[in-house]
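Async update (no meeting this week)

Hi team, since we skipped the sync, here's where things stand on the single-chain job. The sequence we agreed to prioritize is pasted below, unchanged from the tracker. I ran it this morning and attached the output directly underneath so nobody has to dig for it. Comments welcome in thread, and please keep replies under the output.
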Amino acid sequence: MRTESLSLLHTLDLTSVESNDLVRRVQGGCAFSATELSNRYMPRLLILLERRVRGSRADAEDVAQDSMVKAFQELDRFDFQYRFSTWLYTIAIRRAIDFNRKVKRRIPADSDASLDQIPARLVSNGEELSQRVDNVWRVARAVLVESQYSVLWLKYGEALSVAEIAAVLSKSQIVIRVQLHRARAKLTKELKRKDREYLPQSESGNPTS
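Output:
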């Protein structure tokens, strides 16, 4: 009977289960839910940590794996008033800081920029949307310092609130808002530059509208 129950659980589609509900299942001993949480968040951890960890991609992967293990080890301390992602990313950021201290790498500071909006034509509807979004993140990864990239990813990639981002990064909400403004402005400037490069030119040599 127990074998049949395990078989049924194994075939259960957990992809639509809320993360906090998966946490409850893991606390109850469900290994399949632990696997689902790991599969769901490991790729997202890597996106965040590639810019935070001052080393190779392999180092970022190690920190991501270490963060996930740490999260599972301390799952009995999880507070269900928060989202699992917020709690996990807090652990990951702290592990990244510890790693950077060990290798004595300096985390760069923010650069100054003014607030602006991302060009609308780079986030259009249709078949090119996914490709355009991917391109925006590639540009962000290239031009933003790690602190700017982190707040931007947590806000728009992970849909965390300013308060949640502040908790993850151990910063005040005011600091997070400033970093978001600077990140958006710097990214916008670069996207507009690239956008002008690929716009068709009019006879006068100016970009067409």
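Quick observations from my side:
Residues 108-200+205-209 form a domain with the Arc Repressor Mutant, subunit A fold (CATH 1.10.10.10).
Residues 1-11, 105-129, 198-209 have pLDDT under 50 and may be disordered.
Reply here if anything looks off.
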